[in-house]
Specification:
Layout (H helix, E strand, L loop, with lengths): L2 H15 L1 H16 L11 H4 L2 H9 L2 E5 L9 E6 L6 H7 L6 H4 L4 E6 L9 H7 L2 E3 L2 H9 L7 E6 L2 H5 L8 E2 L6 H9 L2 E8 L6 E2 L7 H12 L7 E2 L17 E5 L13 H26 L8 E2 L1
Parallel strand pairs: 1-10, 2-5, 2-7, 3-4, 3-5, 6-11
Antiparallel strand pairs: 7-10, 8-9
Length: about 300
């Protein structure tokens, strides 16, 4: 979290310090405006993904990664990550870094974590994301990873499917996910013959508190109005402080366990009907529910309610 404002501050300081730094900042800004690295599969740098800082981030909670099945590296996959949480810390730590040894867990796979296009407009932060193998969640980006002429077996993506709507549902010890209206990722899987992998992050919603925002409340109405004109929703969250556990913006030290499920193979279809989408969606929801039911008592013993799929 601290990296985003830090990157912005550094860029603004460059505009103010001297003529030389101002010139560099302006040239860099022009570069940002024309660069499309986020749409062409990112720019993975292994040493950056393997820094000790990511290990420290992992151990703070801690965050761990499990798998229900080995994945054939000759295939391509679309991982669906649930729930979104406040900022999807489990997805970032386990997929965008080597803190959880993702390259060893799934050898031969090159998984791009996908995020909002707007993140790639933030100076310096955009480059950190690209070097961590994070790409845009835009359709063009996904199509490029799965089917560009230089695409390799094992090229895959992870989508946090619930998006801004699901972030607003991120209350501790609950798991309300937005999925029934999400069919675009299934169409992409059928178009490109990619297998779907339901993925559940047990504890993702528990690391921050969110200001109560039940549907119909003034808070939710404000969030929905904001989301209608922007690509994200203003989630009003709080956690712990550095020296006190009572209040602050740091996350609580609560475990997050990311579990990838059994893949759902999708045939490559030239013509996709509504019934094709609904059939695969039923399989995906069933796989996600089975994953939740298998681990809920072990990993969510203090849950307030069962999984709700909206």
């Amino acid at each position: 979290m601290i990296l985003v404002p830090l990157c912005i501050i550094v860029f603004l300081e460059m505009l103010l310090i001297s003529y030389i730094t101002r010139t560099i900042a302006c040239v860099y800004f022009l570069y940002i405006m024309q660069d499309k690295g986020q749409e062409t599969g990112a720019r993975r740098i292994e040493w950056l993904r393997s820094l000790s800082v990511w290990i420290w981030l992992r151990d703070f909670f801690p965050i761990s990664l499990r798998k229900e099945a080995d994945l054939d590296p000759s295939k391509k996959y679309i991982f669906g990550y649930h729930p979104h949480g406040i900022i999807s810390l489990g997805a970032f730590t386990s997929i965008a870094t080597e803190a959880c040894d993702i390259s060893k867990v799934f050898p031969g796979l090159n998984i791009r974590l996908l995020t909002l296009e707007s993140n790639f407009k933030i100076p310096f932060w955009r480059d950190i994301l690209l070097f961590l193998n994070v790409a845009s969640a835009d359709k063009r980006s996904i199509v490029h990873v799965l089917s560009n002429p230089k695409s390799q077996p094992g090229d895959s993506v992870m989508l946090v499917l619930g998006g801004a709507a699901e972030a607003m549902e991120a209350q501790p010890y609950t798991n309300r996910i937005v999925l029934k209206s999400r069919l675009g990722f299934i169409k992409l899987a059928l178009t490109h013959g990619a297998s779907l992998v339901p993925t559940f992050a047990f504890g993702e919603n528990d690391v921050w508190d969110q200001v109560p925002n039940p549907r119909g409340s003034y808070v939710r109405q404000f969030q929905n109005a904001f989301k209608s004109v922007a690509s994200f929703s203003p989630v009003l969250f709080h956690g712990r402080g550095i020296f006190t556990y009572d209040y602050g913006i740091m996350p609580y030290r609560r475990a997050i366990t990311v579990v990838t499920g059994v893949p759902i193979d999708c045939p490559k279809l030239d013509t996709i009907t509504e019934s094709d989408l609904v059939e695969v969606q039923k399989k995906y929801i069933a796989g996600l529910q089975a994953l939740y039911d298998k681990y809920k008592d072990e990993l969510l013993p203090t849950r307030k309610e069962e999984l709700v799929i909206l």
